[in-house]
Design brief:
heterotrimer; A mainly alpha (about 325); B alpha/beta (about 500); C mainly alpha (about 325); B: about 500 residues; Rossmann fold; 6-stranded mixed β-sheet; C: mainly alpha; about 70% helix; transmembrane (chain A); membrane (chain A); transmembrane transporter activity (chain A); cell membrane (chain A); ABC_transp_permease (chain A)
Chain lengths: ~325, ~500, ~325
């Protein structure tokens, strides 16, 4: 009976790799371009990607539980649409916010229930959710609806000055609060640990007497809620609602989570990894925009390549463990 | 120790049927506090079903379960756990990605400030581990420990609650001797604390070492309940295996019928696979039926899979017609004329959603490649021939295999390989779970195939059947080949070997 | 078998009747300059790329896989061809461009097959890589521009007529070819065997990996041809929007056609019906005057309905039979 006190280094390896990758890309940027290594560039990473951070936090829950949620991009679009349309119709802002969050969570709840009750693959159910949410956007309006509400605009443009002259928006605060909350829930609550348990081995979790059903549905509610919140942040960022907002954003969210070291098979991963994943994606975008001559499509190719590398590494880790 | 207290668990007249199978028929069972009670029986005897009835996974169709004298009706494993019945399964049913402490306490973890109190959790987990004498870091991740330790952690979880009954369903199948000793030490500690332990194992040595009492099941019925000291191994094995005559007597004794054998077709030299079967030598001659005898877990299936290349051997070599054959997978075995009917008909044998016709020609077609289809005419001929020859019903080639009965499914699987005209046919439990008529037909088929010159490796849990059909019997025990007997040997001889009466010293390695 | 196709057939019939009610002229056909025109022809013409991709997807799904990258592959095919053609107007350049594009697509299919069969990565994830990177590659090829061409032979692929639209003739030809290949050779049976029970197939000696490679290559080539049609129809390559969401439509068509996402038995006829239903649905929404984007809502409803009909658990619940719990 040997006392193995060391934790498996391999389970932290992907996250570590992501952090190193972030440092590296950022280092490369700082070496190549003047003004890259400024506090404001880092702050902008958060400002420009606040919604993605929130999305990735929600997606982390789903992927940790062994599922996937393809509907998040569409729910973001729907949220922007509801926000814009609601404000245009003269609803008070708090009501709009509550409506958006309830709609997102309800969509998540419905998808989770269908997935769990009828044992249909998450992939196809959330695909339907994706169609539904996009379609609902266009039911509200086919055109882009701009947001003219003054309170909303004030919040959107308000900046918070940090020491050193760096400014951030309220979006960043909200995103960081979400990450902190996700950290707490995943690591300090029974629900969070059950998410890991279900992703690790659902059958075992059930035999251990854990509430797997509630957990499996719960992660989609969380993801739906996060998507709706991300949609609110995206509205603040874009100041409009449009059915074609956030097309393909579910892929960015999944990519961020995977690059952040979460196993797609579920059970292993960290919210902070997903945050690092988002920052890596953001840095690559910033790098390419600093570079100037490389076009934006390189972002996609690089993200694809990174995805591949991380999936291959995951594959290797799983094989090694068996 | 067994007479004084009233039973903690009493099951009376339990019956349970699944579609098409009577899993349990009027079974009585009792378990006393402070005893280790072994539940014995071959595959399909109803052991797991009985356990699952006790632990709330299944609800019996009739009969009552009493816990400490009170009737209970559990509807989920959670219910049973609440009532003090904890179960540890063969596979470690824990979450390997969580820490040891979480695996022990998740679901009833100590809390603080709305969150899990990890410090208290580690302390509590350490206390439970200490109770069974296991000293590992509760904060370590479960998968960083070997399976044996994980198994002990599962036991720790089971006893972390107030546990009156501990069910251990084949906990030793993946443990080595030292680890089993450790497990038994813990079992004795718990027994002496007054916990009632229900123990299932296929290893007779272990059962005789640890169990105070045993209950034997066969085909879903209770055969008997005995104190371990009153039941010797022969009697136990005879009770487990039973005797099934009647419809099968039509087949004459194989060893009398054929004495001469053809040339050696397949020879294994020191063939083995780590953790599955120890290196063995084996000759199989054309036209003979070699029987493999041994209890479940003795390495029967593992041996067969090596010969077919379904698993790769880690040592030794295989010769076919005297030439070395490097098996890279089933395809190379098939090319050499070896065929294998898996014991797991549904999982590894048939393609349930395809028709009888497609299943019949699958192996032949796979060998030809996709671009050279078996013509419709040839297919129809083959199908017609084998539907008739094996009496497959319904005789409708378009019927989906999933709709057939077990016996007919088995015949389809057999026919698939007969179509390829194999030189060595490996049959792993071809008669399990099928009705008696189909059983007789399959046995008849084996003898006639051998008469035509096909070599057959016949694996069955039913010794009677093996002894009757085989020209030669290879006996396996604890993943070692321990003996080869002539076909004329008696069941008693084989039982003696399996029970380990004569050869226990030689097997020790 | 017939039962499985009954519901899709009824759905298609219902949609067509609805169209007839809304637009009485929907079924009328007329011939003008040797071209057949009419509502039905439009459905066929617009549905051709989806049908083609759905054919490839059917075989992939039959092996328990999925290919998310087809939309991106279609975009690459269009981009490569249009860039190769450039300002040229002659047939040789057009055919060379298309040939290069299709060979490239086959290579991309090999890549997917390698990830799935070679490395053993889950199909959804493996093809996600190319889905993400593929659009980038397409934009790399077109340098982010929408490349317009003026090449008549190329234009024929997507917009030409041979009485019927050439695109639908191509799709139907591929359908026929696949049906013939899978049913006249043993390919179809082996694909189904691998999809239903991979382990049993391996033990029966089936080359499961080779089959999986084959279906991914086929799916990519189908996507390539569809990409050519899409780009030819507008005589331009739009790396961003060509074939956007077509993978979802294709998967939907396959599922509506009765092929289970769990792999195994597949139906090419079902897929044909599925593709037609999707296209008719789109057309219907358009003709009854709802914004075309709203089609998505209907598609969502169809997906869920079809999945519920297929799911064993849902069926059991609907028929009030006792659900076996484990």
């Amino acid at each position: 009976m040997t006392a193995l006190t060391t934790k498996l280094p391999s389970r932290f390896l992907p996250v570590l790799a992501t952090v190193v990758l972030f440092a590296l890309t950022f280092g490369v940027g700082s070496g190549l371009y003047d003004g890259f290594a400024s506090g404001q560039v880092i702050a902008n990473l958060f400002i420009d990607n606040a919604f993605l951070i929130v999305l990735a936090a929600g997606m982390t829950f789903v992927i940790l539980s062994g599922g996937i949620d393809l509907s998040v991009g569409s729910v973001v679009a729907l949220s922007t649409m509801v926000t814009a349309a609601g404000l245009k119709a003269g609803w008070p802002l708090p009501l709009v916010i509550i409506a958006v969050l309830v709609i997102g969570s309800t969509l998540g709840l419905l998808m989770g229930l269908v997935i769990h009750k009828f044992d249909i693959q998450p992939f196809i159910v959330t695909l339907a959710g994706m169609f539904l949410a996009r379609g609902l956007c266009f039911l509200i309006s086919v055109e882009s609806v701009s947001i003219k509400d003054s309170t909303f605009r004030d919040v959107a443009t308000a900046v918070i000055e940090l020491p050193g002259g760096v400014t951030i928006t309220y979006n960043v605060i909200i995103a960081l609060v979400v990450v902190a909350a996700a950290l707490f829930v995943l690591h300090r609550t029974r629900f969070g640990r059950t998410v890991y348990a279900v992703g690790g081995n659902e059958q075992s979790a059930l035999l251990m007497g854990l509430k797997t059903a509630r957990t499996k549905v719960g992660v989609y509610v969380i993801s739906g809620f996060c998507s709706a919140l991300a949609g609110l942040l995206f509205s603040l960022y874009m100041l409009s609602g449009y059915g074609l907002h956030a097309v393909g954003m579910e892929l960015d969210a999944i990519a961020a989570v995977v690059i952040g070291g979460t196993l797609l098979a579920g059970g292993v991963g960290y919210v902070l990894g997903s945050l690092a994943g988002v920052l890596v994606l953001g840095t690559i975008q910033t790098l390419i925009s600093f570079q100037g001559t490389l076009s934006s499509w390189w972002t996609k190719i690089v993200i694809g390549a990174l995805l591949l590398v991380f999936i291959a590494v995951q594959r290797g880790l799983i094989r090694e463990r068996r | 120790m067994t007479e004084s207290p009233p039973p903690v668990v009493e099951m009376r007249g339990i019956s349970l049927a699944f579609p098409g199978v009577k899993a349990l028929q009027d079974v009585d069972f009792q378990l006393f506090p402070g005893e280790v009670h072994a539940l014995m029986g071959e595959n399909g005897a109803g052991k797991s079903t009985l356990i699952k009835t006790l632990t709330g996974v299944h609800t019996p169709d009739s009969g009552t379960v009493l816990l400490a004298g009170e009737t209970v009706a559990f509807t989920s494993p959670g219910d049973a756990q609440q009532a003090g019945i904890s179960t540890v399964y063969q596979e470690v049913n824990l979450c390997a990605n969580l820490t040891v402490a979480e695996n022990i306490l998740l679901g009833r973890e100590p809390r603080k400030l709305g969150g899990i109190d990890f410090k208290a959790m580690r302390t509590q987990a350490a206390a439970v581990l200490a109770r069974i004498g296991v000293h590992i870091d509760p904060a370590s991740v479960l998968e960083s420990h070997p399976i044996a330790v994980q198994q002990l952690v599962a036991i720790a979880r089971a006893i972390a609650v107030d546990c009156r009954v501990l069910v251990l369903d084949e906990p030793t199948s993946s443990l080595d001797a030292g680890e089993v000793a450790e497990l038994f030490r813990i079992m004795r500690v718990l027994r002496d604390e007054g916990v009632a332990i229900l123990f299932v194992s296929h290893f007779l040595d272990q059962v005789y070492e640890i169990a105070d009492r045993m209950t034997v099941l066969r085909n879903g019925t209770l055969v008997g309940e005995h104190l371990t000291k009153d039941l010797d191994r022969r009697a136990l094995i005879a009770a487990m295996i039973g005797r099934e005559l009647g419809a099968l007597e039509a087949i004459e004794d194989a060893s009398e019928r054929r004495t001469a054998s053809g040339p050696v077709l397949v020879r294994a030299e020191g063939l083995g696979r780590k953790g599955a079967i120890a290196p063995f030598d084996l000759d199989i001659r054309a036209g003979e039926v070699v029987g493999l005898a041994g209890l479940l877990g003795s390495g029967r299936t593992e041996l067969a899979r090596l010969l077919f290349g379904a698993d790769k051997a880690t040592e030794g070599k295989l010769l076919v017609d005297g030439a070395h054959l490097h098996l890279r997978g089933p395809r190379s075995a098939i090319a050499a004329g070896i065929a294998f009917c898996s014991e797991d008909r549904k999982g590894e044998g048939l393609v349930a959603d395809l028709s009888i016709r497609d299943n019949l020609v699958l192996a032949m077609q796979a060998a030809r490649g996709w671009s050279r289809p078996v013509s419709r005419r040839v297919k129809d001929q083959l199908v017609e021939k084998y539907l008739a020859a094996l009496d497959i019903r319904p005789a409708n080639p378009d019927a989906l295999v999933r709709t057939l009965s077990g016996g007919n499914q088995q015949k389809v699987l057999l026919a698939r390989w007969l179509v390829t005209e194999p030189r060595l046919l490996i049959l792993d439990e071809p008669t399990r779970g099928i009705d008696i008529g189909a059983k007789a037909q399959i046995q008849q088929l084996v003898t006639s195939l051998a008469a035509e010159g096909t070599a057959v490796l016949f694996i069955s849990a039913e010794l009677e059947e093996v002894v009757r059909i085989a020209d030669r019997i290879v006996v396996l025990r604890d993943r070692h080949k321990i003996a080869e007997l002539d076909g004329g040997s008696s069941i008693d001889e084989v039982v003696g070997l399996i029970a380990g009466e004569h050869l226990s010293e030689e097997v020790a390695s | 078998m017939k039962n499985r196709l009954l519901w899709p057939l009824l759905a298609l019939a219902a949609l067509l009747v609805l169209n007839l009610v809304v637009t009485p002229s929907f079924f009328s056909l007329r011939i003008q300059d040797g071209h057949l025109y009419g509502g039905l022809v439009d459905v066929l013409k617009n549905g051709a790329p989806t049908l083609l991709i759905a054919l490839g997807m059917t075989l992939v799904i039959a092996t328990r896989g999925i290919d998310l990258s087809v939309g991106a592959v279609a975009a690459i095919a269009g981009a490569v061809t249009c860039v190769h053609i450039g300002a040229s107007g002659d047939a040789g350049t057009a055919f060379a461009g298309m040939a290069i594009a299709l060979v490239l697509c086959a290579l991309l299919g090999l890549w997917n097959g390698f990830l799935v069969a070679g490395l053993g990565i889950q199909p959804i994830i493996a093809t996600l890589v190319l889905m993400t990177a593929g659009r980038g590659i397409a934009m790399l090829v077109t340098e982010g521009q929408i490349i317009t061409v003026n090449n008549d032979p190329f234009r024929q692929v997507g917009a030409g007529f041979l009485i019927l639209p050439i695109s639908i003739l191509i799709s139907l030809a591929v359908l026929g070819l696949v049906a013939l290949t899978t049913r006249k050779t043993a390919l179809g049976m082996l694909i189904e065997a691998v999809g239903v029970n991979p382990e049993a197939s391996r033990l029966a000696g089936v080359r499961a990996k080779t089959i999986i490679w084959t279906v991914y290559v086929f799916a990519a080539v189908c996507a390539g041809i569809a990409g050519l049609m899409i780009s030819s129809n507008v005589s331009a390559a739009d790396a961003n929007n060509a074939g956007l969401w077509i993978e979802m439509d294709a998967i939907l068509a396959v599922v509506i056609g009765g092929t289970s996402l769990a792999g195994g038995r597949y139906s090419l006829t079902g897929t044909l019906l599925g593709a037609l239903i999707i296209q008719t649905l789109t057309t219907t929404v358009y003709t009854i005057g709802v914004a075309p984007e709203v089609t998505l809502v209907f598609k969502a409803v169809v997906v869920i309905a079809v999945c519920l009909v297929q799911a064993p658990k849902a069926r059991a619940a609907l028929s009030f039979r006792k659900v076996a719990t484990t």
